[in-house]
Amino acid sequence: MESSSNNVEFITLEAAAAMTTGTRITFIPGMQAIYAEALKNICYVKNIPIIRALHPMMGIDKQTGEDRQATLYELTRQTGLPTMFHNEERPRNVWTEQLALAEAIGAPDSVKLIPDDFAQRADMFGLSAITLAEDGLVWNMRILNDGPLGRKYGYSEDASRDAPRKMGEIVKLIDDRLAAQEARGSKYLVGDAISAVDVYWATISMLVIPAPPEIMTRTKQNQGMLAMFEMISTVPEVAQAVSPRMEKHRDYILHNYCETPAVLGGDPL
Does residue 254 contact residue 260 with C-beta atoms inside 8 Å? Predict the structure, then answer.
């Protein structure tokens, strides 16, 4: 069964897993789930047509009493968002593998997102990791508060207490890199051309710099998430580390390389 929301088609997870051609990515309609949004932007830069599939929500179905993500786990042995299917290959769930796949299957004339230069490649993956990987910016954002998602990422009182400091340090490190690159005449985080970390950071910086409607579409489904992002941007350790150059970089990357405003499906406000 297919669902259509705001002129965006979403196929079922089962249909996506059964397909043998095409690139399928799981999303929650109307929600800018940050890893899914980042992968979508990576694919957009690489000119990869994507098929959107419905990602099951966390928790127990009240009508059936079953885990909503049981089928996802059965198909992929994990429950993270997003899951990426391509042709008949195994599903990818980790951002490094998703990026490698996107680089391999992207259009021949698309820009390279993984630098050929190994020193720049190390920089790119390192800066991406402190944003995306374990104990990075998104990870620490998720353990700020206790809840199902926070517990999935290892919430504890001690970890939550230390999360704002880590987030502030990461944001400052990114800003310092942007300042150094600006001083040498580059608009990008690594070298003199766009790389994956520019796309990742521009997308994920919406956590710490609220994005206007011309960048992030407002829907009935994402009001709560936008409010959470607004709250995160006011955490003192984070707010003190943000600078105007970060917003300038975000806007440049998203407007020049990605699809803006974001296409989410769902129910627009």
Answer: yes
**Architecture of the domain defined by 3-105:** 3-Layer(aba) Sandwich (3.40)
Q: Which residue has the tokens 């919406």?
A: 206
Instruction: Provide the CA 182 distance to its chain's centre, in angstroms.
Output: 25
- Of the CATH numbers 1.20.120, 1.20.1050, 1.10.260, 1.25.40, which one belongs to the domain with range 118-257? 1.20.1050
Q: Kindly report the backbone phi and psi dihedral angles of residue 98, in degrees, each rounded to the nearest multiple of 5, phi listed first.
A: -65, -40
- How do the pLDDT tens digits run along the chain, 269 residues long? 334 345 799 999 999 999 999 999 999 999 999 999 999 999 999 999 999 999 999 899 888 899 999 999 999 999 999 999 999 999 999 999 999 999 999 999 999 999 999 999 999 999 999 999 999 999 999 999 898 888 888 889 999 999 999 999 999 999 999 999 999 999 999 999 999 999 999 999 999 999 999 999 999 999 999 999 999 999 999 999 999 999 999 999 999 999 999 999 999 88
Contact 53, 84 (CB under 8 A): no
Transcribe 60-124 into DSSP letters. Answer: B-TTT-SBTTHHHHHHHS---S--EEETTSPPB-SHHHHHHHHHHHS-TTSPPSS-SSHHHHHHH
Which residue is associated with the tokens 């720049």? 120
Q: Please state the φ and ψ torsions of residue 250, each to the nearest 5 degrees.
A: -55, -50
